[in-house]
Amino acid sequence: MKQLPEPFRIKTVEPIRMTTREYRLRKIKEAGYNTFLLRSEDVYIDLLTDSGTSAMSDAQWAALQMGDEAYAGSRNFYDLEATVQNVYGYRYFVPTHQGRAAEHIMSKLLIKPGDYVPGNMYFTTTRLHQELAGGTFVDVIIDEAHDPTSTHPFKGNVDIAKMQKLVDQVGAEKIPYISYETCVNMAGGQPISIANLKELRAFCDRYGIKIMLDNTRTVENAYFIQQREPGYAHKSIKEIVKEICSYTDGCTCSAKKDGLGNIGGFLAMNDEDFYIAAQAEVVVYEGLHTYGGMSGRDMAALAQGIRESVETDDYIRYRVEQVNYLGTLLSEAGVPHVVPHGGHAIFLDARRIVPHIEQDEFPAQALAAAIYVETGVRTMERGIVSSGRDPKTGQNRHPKLELVRMTIPRRVYTESHLRFAAEGVIELFQQPQRVAGLKFVYEPKQLRFFQARFEPVTAVAETVLK
Ligand code: F0G
């Protein structure tokens, strides 16, 4: 298989450094077998995340020079506001420094203690802010999303019967909104369909429940709709993005992904009262409502990035097909991973790659550590460690999906980088016994995956991860 040629050429390069296996083994031990605790300099190809890791275009770098760093009323704010209104179609815009800040403000304003917040699978920071506001998250994604082998084309869809069940159990007045995510990250970057969203809209209208979009990866989702959903093949990405947003009441967004920003986020909505309340919260936690934690130049680069993400369909086609290229190399070698391939990452199925490791010994965490040692490629765990503990029982949650995410930064790596990463994973896949389970030596209370430290479970494991 060939990768689609990039719709850009390279103007600036950043050197990266290959290290020895011995060096990396020392570094992963120092990092407590947690790839989040490695130094970037010690990584050869960084597939940790697609968040804030995009390469900016020449137009974005030029926009940085046009930063208006006024405390109040920066021209870059008005440009970003107009861009968000134009691309996503919401009436009101409130900037934040990144996505979780928008989630914090929205959760604080919309959730009352004792409420339930359904969602098409959880996202780590999103659920935490719901819980901190006194809410309980309820997963209403279709069952296929929890099955890494199901080839359902829209595994991000909501199961309306699960919504009905929740309404019947707790009452619609206890459900302020559904958190609806495009290209569901924890499911493997799996898209939602317009048909599902329309059906959900009708359902929510019946019960007075809002739909709040997690707009972080809507452009990638629009590409899948264009490719897969009847009636959308001839619509532009720009049109589809706007249509998705039009069925929702507002959104939170981490603009560090689709938006091609290195930092930034926002809330957007159509309801004026919610807008005014959100502006009042922003000044408490983020900064004035005309910068929300971003500098003027950040807002300038972001506005340009958001425009570029939908300006032509070529960019997003290249982007999603590059992810598909990596997935196809792994498919050809029989390495188990989530199918269909998602929009931002390939998710390795640790349950099937290292079946000898019990879930309580963190198979995906161990596999991510081993991939780093063997190849210098940094990936991340998306399984039991990310899932955390149930706040009521204190017990570990045991998600069905136990995954290692190979996340592709936008416009950063070439075909040969991805081939190198795939070859390393394929080699390790052929000797899975090299990977051994881990146990906690330090477990933070919240979002533990970021800072947790581990060690191998047995002395044998030491030699296995050697
Ligand atoms: N929602 C989704 C779907 C996300 O993927 C993220 C971040 C956030 C919200 C939070 O946004 O990081 O700007 O505060 N995802 C990153 C990742 C961290 O690596 O998947 P943030």
Please explain how this structure is put together.
The chain has 466 residues and is of the alpha/beta class. Helix content is 41%, strand content 13%. It has helices at 21-30, 58-64, 75-88, 99-110, 124-132, 160-170, 194-207, 218-228, 237-246, 272-285, 296-311, 314-332, 350-353, 363-375, 384-387, 415-429, 459-464; strands at residues 45-46, 92-96, 116-119, 136-139, 177-181, 210-214, 250-254, 265-269, 345-349, 377-378, 380-382, 403-407, 438-442, 453-456. It has a five-stranded mixed sheet with strand order 2-8-7-6-5, with helices on both faces. The chain has a three-stranded antiparallel sheet with strand order 9-12-11. Strand 5 (177-181), helix 7 and strand 6 (210-214) form a beta-alpha-beta unit. The structure holds ligand F0G. The site of ligand F0G has 15 residues, from helix 4 and helix 5.
Jot down its keywords.
466 residues; alpha/beta; Aspartate Aminotransferase, domain 1; Aspartate Aminotransferase, domain 2; 2 domains; 5-stranded mixed beta sheet; 3-stranded antiparallel beta sheet; binds ligand F0G; tyrosine phenol-lyase activity; lyase; PyrdxlP-dep_Trfase_small; pyridoxal phosphate; PyrdxlP-dep_Trfase_major
